[in-house]
Amino acid sequence: MKKVWYLTGASQGLGLTLVKKLLAAGFRVAATSRNAQALKNAVGVLDKDLFLALAVDLNNPDSIEESVRQTVRVFGGIDVLVNNAGYGMTSVLEDMSSSDLAGIMGINVLAVMNVTKSILPLMRMQRSGYIFNISSVAGFVGAPGWAIYSATKAAVTAFSEVLALDVQEFGIKVTVVEPSGFRTGFLTAESLAYKEPAIEGYEAVRQTQARYLAANGKQPGDPDKAAEILIALSETEKPPVHLYLGRDAYSRVAAKLSDMTNELEQWKETSISADFKD
To answer: With 0-12 CB in 10 A as exposed, 13-18 as middle and 19+ as buried, what is 275?
Structure first.
């Protein structure tokens, strides 16, 4: 029997691409969206023995728990979790309201934790499972105007790193996926909260925003290839904790690691001087 996958944020982008590829390969898939009928329409031809569309409010832990119970009732368990739901935000901190900050933290960070918390007991009892948390290269190498989005993705990355240590004794694997630009709907109004700075200055932010928005539909990353990589990785015995996807992601991370290493060594004596001498 093929594995059961549970995915959040499946109505568009990488999530939708992954659902379609999984179903074509015969996997059983439970997928969440705010609107179950819209998700069904997006997926297309459906097999009720393979596909379960779930309307879930990811800000509501009770709604998440009920979706997990429904999945177990229909498919008997969950083998692979993909925390994919999230959205982008480009602005400057001074222009963001408290509700802006709470909203993106709620979906991009707290929902990842709450969904994982709901599914972990199943995986722990069966002593197997795989968790993919979709982060972003921006969580490690940010750009002007993306401070809050980068903060949410850095949180997902740090959470995933330590979660992997916590659950390894139960046979559960964790990979945080950190892509660069992929040709999805990420830079459209449905997935990106965008505010041009209302305050004078912030020229680096304005220039970076213009460059990113102009790249919509031209990103080098291929969602089909990304989905195929995740499916193949789900069968790997020793997968990576970090998976950077895209040439741009690789290049940006490699450059920052080099800079960080140089800075670390430059300030080594200052760092170690903070300890007691004994």
So the answer is: exposed
Provide the mean pLDDT of the chain: 91
Structure tokens, 208: 């970076």
pTM greater than 0.90 (yes/no): yes
What's the pLDDT tens digit per position in 181-239? 666 665 565 556 767 888 888 888 888 777 777 766 667 668 899 999 999 999 999 99
* % of residues, the chain, pLDDT over 70: 92
Report d(CA 40, CA 54) in Å as an integer: 9
Q: What is the pLDDT of residues 234-256, one digit of tens each?
A: 999 999 999 999 999 999 999 99
CATH for the stretch 4-247: 3.40.50.720
Catalytic residue positions, numbered: 135, 149, 153
DSSP-assigned beta bridge partners for residue 4: 28
Are the beta carbons of 34 and 55 closer than 8 angstroms? yes
User: In terms of Cα–Cα distance, which of 147, 139, 137 is closest to 92?
Assistant: 147
Among residues 57, 56, 80, 97, the alpha carbon closest in space to that of 3 is found at 80
For the packed helices 223-233 and 13-24, what is the interaxial angle rounded to 10 degrees? 60
CB-count burial class (<10 Å; 0-12, 13-18, 19+) for 70: middle
- Spatial separation of the C-alpha atoms in residues 119 and 86, rounded to whole Å: 19
Q: Which sequence spans correspond to the domains of the chain? A: 4-247
Structure tokens given for 261: 């290493």
Which pLDDT score is estimated for 211? 76
